[in-house]
Amino acid sequence: MSTTLTSQRGGPGRPPAGHPSGDKRFKILEVFIKRQQQKQDTLIEVLHKAQELFGYLDDGLLFFVAHHLRLPPSRVYGVATFYHYFKLKPQGAHTCVVCMGTACYVKGAHQIVEALERAAGIRAGGTTPDGRLSLLTARCIGACGIAPAVVYDETVAPRQTPESALERVRNWLDHGAG
Ligand code: FES
User: Fold this and answer.
1) Is residue 157 within 6 Å of ligand 1 at its C-beta?
2) Which end of the chain is more exposed for a tag (fewer CB within 10 A), N or C?
3) How many helices (H) and strands (E) does the chain have?
């Protein structure tokens, strides 16, 4: 069973606060920002965290960060575009984010990553040469109860195994936009 995370991801329609989508990654990011005491000079750290959680920084996510740091969106966008490290869109047509937080790790997330790396012929953090798949890892995405969790595009899949992950990704790699 999969849980569709959000219809807001990827556009200005994403709410600036809270996450009715149920995507816990927003909550994690919100808590992280609060821990920084919402200091505006922590913007780069916050963007790092956001990219780690989501894989890339789309407009809605940048707006979310701006709102919570009480910064003009233009400033947040300016910083995100200045540093090459930050990705503003997924590199591949599909994005697969394997959670490597503790709960997922102890339940075999590293084996999932290894299996995906082998199947796709890339290392985690990379994109296949044909641009079909970006394979990313994240620390806890807030779904420890269903560890090990993998986010396929914007859908969190629970209790993944190397086999289930391979099936999903192979489908993408073998059958186009799927
Ligand atoms: S450690 Fe993977 S969801 Fe928390």
Assistant:
1) no
2) N
3) 7, 5
Residue 152, pLDDT above cutoff 50: yes
- For residues 28 and 23, give the distance between their C-alpha atoms in angstroms, rounded to a whole number: 9
CA of 34 to the centre of ligand 1 (A): 20
CA of 31 to the centre of ligand 1 (A): 15
Output the CA 43–ligand 1 centroid distance in Å: 24
> Which is more confident, 68 or 39?
68
pLDDT at 2: 42
151 in ligand 1 pocket by Cβ < 6 Å?
Answer: no
Angle at 104 between CA 146 and CA 152, to 5 degrees: 70
Domain extents in the chain: 3-82, 94-175
CATH numeric code, 94-175: 3.40.30.10
What pTM did the predictor assign?
0.68
How remote is the CA of residue 78 from the centroid of ligand 1, in Å?
31
Cβ of 150 less than 6 Å from ligand 1: no
Taking only the tens place, the pLDDT of each residue in 65-109 is 999 999 999 999 999 999 988 988 877 899 899 999 999 999 999
Contact indicator for 126, 137 with CB cutoff of 8 Å? no
